[in-house]
Amino acid sequence: MHVVRDMFQGYEKLSCEVVNYSKSSMSFSLNVSEPDKQMCCQILGIPREGGQSKYLGLPALVGKNKMIILGYLRDRIHSRLKSWNDRFVSRVGTTVLLKNVVQTMPSYAMNVFLLPKELCDDIEKVMNEFLWRGSKFDKKGLRWRSWKGLCMPKEVGGLGFRRLREFNLAMLGKQGWRLITDESCLMSRVLKARYFPNTNFLNAKLGNNPSFIWRSIFETQELQKNNTRRRVGNGVDVQVWADAWLPGQGSGKISSIRRRSVRDMNVAALHDITGKKWNVDKICSLFNEEDKKLILSIPISAQDRKDGYWWKGETNGLYSVKSRYRLLMGEFQADGWK
Predict the structure, then answer these.
(1) Which of 42, 130, 199, 253 lies 20 to 30 Å (CA to CA) from residue 337?
(2) Residues 75, 78, 80, CA angle at the centre, nearest 5°?
(3) CA-based angle 56:62:66, to the nearest 5?
(4) What is the reported pTM?
(5) CA separation for the pair 17, 21 (Å, rounded)
(6) Angle 185-302-270 (CA atoms, 0-180°, nearest 5)?
(7) Hey, is 103 helix, strand or coil?
(8) What's the pLDDT at 29?
(9) Average pLDDT rounded to a whole number, residues 110-114
(10) Share of the chain above pLDDT 70, in %
């Protein structure tokens, strides 16, 4: 802890900013003894905290019971709806309020945490009761359609409400996309060093004793795998047999039978000696007709551009919460990547 204290002091000298210890807190695991807890607090001058503090509006520590820690979202929404109960609002106005105010309230937490399914169901239940309410908030009105039906697009008879669980996964998918495409950002560096130091997010494992944040982002990995392709640049970082890099609606991986004599190779090994064209003879000798046609349809960049990633749900190849949500809802097939 002396090293941590010296680190804080060094930060203060270099940045000319002072750490506010009175507003700081510490949390300990059950394995830390009481004398060690007191010693750490005394060295740093930080008061001991029971884990109920918040940082940037979110719980600083999340225990096993997520419903208790994150239940404030449901309570806040219920309180907001109750304050509107005495106002005369038309059914159309109620729909607008639920969409533009209530459904946005948990969005900030959804960027970081995967809310328990029970919590999402409770919030949707409260919203549904408010939409079809009778003369009083606690009185049930006549419900003309199920909540699931109301969450369908307007084009097919719904009202376009969001399914919170699916929208939560779509929001977390944006963090997963950052782990894939921006390994230099602080979040990527921290999570990569802790959970997948020798691989990338698409091939990472959940690991032992994962944090709630990592477990939440990890839930998006499978769909991320199925809808992410490697964008071929110079071909150095794209593995021919292991990566999904072929265009089209298939898996994106090579379907040709791999010969025993062929070792692992990158896509750059399929270029000719100039690196500006495909080595047609080599491609014809290694791959079947379908794979050969797909490979030769990929243009080779005239510049030495690095390999990247492409999101199938958008024509521009960039991840969006909207396209991910539609994929989760099954509204359309991801056919933007060609």
Answers:
(1) 199
(2) 110
(3) 115
(4) 0.81
(5) 12
(6) 90
(7) coil
(8) 76
(9) 92
(10) 92
Contact call for residues 245 and 233 (beta carbons, < 8 A): no
What is the number of alpha carbons within 13 Å of residue 296 lying toward its C-beta? Answer: 13
In DSSP terms, 287 is beta-bridged to none
Long-range contacts, 281-286 (Cβ 8 Å, 24+): 286/256, 286/259, 286/262
Two tokens at 109?
Answer: 């937490």
Between 225 and 304, residue with greater pLDDT? 225
Contact 231, 309 (CB under 8 A): yes
Count other C-beta atoms under 10 Å from residue 100's C-beta.
Answer: 9
* Short-list 149, 114, 156, CA closest to 128: 149
Residues in Cβ contact with 54 at an 8 Å cutoff, skipping those fewer than 6 apart: 60
- CA-based nearest residue to 245, from 281, 279, 294: 294
- CB of 216 within 8 A of CB of 172? yes
Residue 54 phi/psi, 5-degree rounding, is: -125, 150
Phi-psi region of 248 (alpha: psi -120 to 50; beta: other; left: phi over 0): left
Number of helical (H) and strand (E) elements in the chain, helices listed first = 15, 4
Is residue 20 predicted with pLDDT exceeding 60? Answer: yes
Neighbours of 252 (CB within 10 A): 21
pLDDT at 220 over 80: yes
Q: Give the pLDDT confidence of 230-289 residue by residue, as tens digits.
A: 999 999 999 999 899 998 878 889 999 887 777 789 999 999 988 889 999 999 999 999
User: Per-residue pLDDT tens for 156-197?
Assistant: 888 889 999 999 999 999 999 999 999 999 999 999 999 999
DSSP assigned state of 249: S
CA distance 173 to 220: 6
